[in-house]
Design brief:
This protein has 508 residues and is an alpha+beta fold. It is 30% helix and 21% strand. The protein is built from 16 helices and 23 strands. It has helices at residues 23-34, 78-91, 102-105, 118-122, 145-152, 169-183, 187-196, 210-213, 269-278, 288-294, 358-366, 390-404, 414-420, 436-445, 474-478, 488-505; strands spanning 17-18, 21-22, 38-45, 48-59, 64-65, 70-73, 204-206, 239-240, 243-244, 250-251, 265-267, 298-299, 305-306, 308-309, 312-314, 320-327, 330-337, 344-350, 381-386, 408-413, 428-433, 455-461, 467-472. The strands form six sheets. It has an eight-stranded antiparallel β-sheet with strand order 5-4-3-18-17-16-15-14, with helices on both faces. It has a five-stranded antiparallel β-sheet with strand order 19-23-22-21-20. A hairpin with a 4-residue loop joins strand 4 and strand 5 (64-65). Helix 2 (78-91) packs parallel to helix 6 and helix 12 (390-404) crosses helix 16. The radius of gyration is 24 Å and the shape is globular.
Length: 508
């Protein structure tokens, strides 16, 4: 096998590894670093799903294994299903996405919302406040839509509709209400009929359906799992995962009404992948022009283009889009490489909140085709593709540093420097910053670490037009300096840099 020449095109390599690290190693290391109890990965190489693997525990207390059948709360991925439902009704001539919201919900909404269009709701360009930001909101409460709307109705629009993009769960609650108004039925029933049942998704449901869909979880302790010997329902059963917060405290199941339209679905990674494959053609949304509407960037009234739509975000990598997020106890991620030479999708679902899988998913995808990689040494660098240009990405980094009160010591424009000596290179910038209070502690422990400080972050555009953010992994650098690798400041630095990159690179 060591001498096998592995393909880089078509169906990808027969050994799934990237930069000498297997997909399993990537995931195990990531789970250890972020203390994730359990996770399921699914890989699509359309139209196949060649890999679905569970890692770790879906329930720490009962020591139940994460499996291919484990259902996870998929959080904001639910937006994708709601957007599909709206477009299906559009194709059935039951609504017009360019209609004002007041045409459908006149009796439910305040005057300020009446002229906002359904399309602006899908774009997250409505300006309507997010009920999750309201001090009265409690995610564990089973709210009615009326209660949630009344919670934010007094809040003035954050901006004129169609002039900015800001994610708001209220937008998709309103879309769910529109679905009910035009169908005369239930939002969840419409999703079940036209997506879940239509595609045969046996491990996808809303939270109030869990008890009907899954086999009652049975503790593995004391060999109680031996029930499979006498009851076929316990042979490779579907089970829901238990969610955990940042400190691994168990979180209660969320009621469907808490995040209606925005984040109410549960699914296995395999089912998310099956649904994802159905997005590729006319299976769910019939007309290509309609698919293009919700799988491409938002153009604002000013003409400015924001690389996001219906929870999805888009980068300059041809055909790339992802949707991700977190709810209480869970994190989810789905990326799609829809270019004809790639057709790879990565789904990652886990039972710990506030986990960003973007970097991990990109490295996993790269194991199936080098064209999807950053083209740099990901062993020593943390890389993150930005949805914005080099200039805007750098401006967003600066804004985050200013907000945090972190001093910026220098900036370098290598494109301009190259021009000054008669050479050409793509846009390439470096920003140097840091906190003397933090860095000094490290240098007092190991003076030579001053070579690594202050911190640096690079932003560049590659030959294919993708814009990348990168920084040295401080944990890797610290390994060169004795015991510094065990200093908790190092881990905090890596987390700070990763958060900075994430906030600079993403619309939402």
């Amino acid at each position: 096998m060591a001498n096998t020449i592995l393909p880089e095109e078509g169906r990808g390599a027969s050994v799934v590894a990237y930069q000498q690290e297997s997909v399993d190693e990537m995931i195990y290391n990531f789970m250890k670093e972020h203390e994730i109890p359990g996770l399921t990965l699914a890989i699509v190489q359309a139209p196949y799903i060649p890999r679905v693997v569970g890692y770790g525990l879906c329930d720490i207390g009962e020591k139940r294994l994460a499996s291919t059948n484990t259902l996870w709360a998929i959080g904001p991925l639910t937006q994708g299903y709601t957007a599909v439902a709206i477009m299906q009704l559009y194709e059935q001539d039951k609504l017009n996405i360019y209609d004002a919201l007041g045409k459908y919900l006149n009796d439910q909404i305040p005057a300020a919302w009446q002229q906002i269009t359904l399309f602006e709701l899908m774009q997250h360009a409505s300006g309507i406040s997010d009920y999750r930001d309201n001090a009265k909101y409690d995610m564990s409460t089973a709210y009615t839509p009326k209660q949630l709307i009344e919670m934010v109705a007094p809040v003035p629009l954050l901006f004129e509709s169609g002039t900015e993009v800001r994610q708001s769960a209220t937008n998709f609650l309103l879309l769910a209400q529109v679905i009910e108004r035009v169908t005369g039925g239930d939002y969840e029933d419409f999703i079940r009929k036209y997506q879940i049942e239509y595609l045969g998704l046996k491990e996808t449901c809303f939270s109030n359906d869990l008890s009907r869909l899954i086999t009652e979880p049975v503790a593995c302790n004391n060999n109680l799992h031996a029930l499979f010997k006498t009851d076929k329902a316990y042979i490779d059963p579907a089970e829901n995962a238990v969610g955990y917060d940042d400190t691994l405290h168990q979180q209660p199941l969320l009621p469907s009404g808490a995040l209606k339209g925005f984040a109410g679905l549960w699914a296995s990674a395999r089912d998310v992948s099956l649904w994802d494959i159905a997005l590729a053609g006319s299976v769910l949304i019939k007309k290509p022009e309609n698919r293009a509407l919700i799988y491409s960037a938002t153009t604002l009234k000013s003409g400015k283009v924001v690389p996001a739509m219906a929870g999805w975000q888009f980068t300059n990598h041809n055909g790339f889009m992802d949707i991700k997020g977190s709810v209480k106890g869970f994190s989810s991620y789905l990326s799609r490489f829809t270019g004809a030479s790639e057709l790879v999708c990565v789904t990652l679902l886990a039972n710990k909140e506030n986990i960003d899988f973007t970097n991990l998913a990109r490295r996993i995808a790269s194991a199936f085709g080098l064209s999807m990689s950053a083209g740099v040494n990901d062993t020593i660098l943390y890389t993150y593709e930005s949805a914005f240009s080099v200039d805007e990405t750098m401006a967003r980094i600066e804004a985050q540093l200013k907000k945090a009160g972190t001093p910026v010591f220098a900036q370098f424009d290598h494109e301009r420097n190259a021009q000054e000596v008669g050479l050409k290179m793509p846009p390439t910038r470096v920003i140097v910053f840091g906190s003397p209070l933090v860095g000094t502690h490290l240098m007092l422990e190991e003076p030579s670490f001053c070579v690594e400080l202050p911190l640096k972050m690079a932003v560049w555009q590659d030959a294919k037009g993708s814009v990348w953010i990168a920084f040295p992994k401080m944990k890797i650098r610290a390994q060169l300096y004795g015991n510094l690798v065990n200093n908790p400041i190092i881990a905090k630095m890596d987390q700070l840099l990763a958060n900075l990159a994430r906030k600079a690179a993403n619309v939402y």
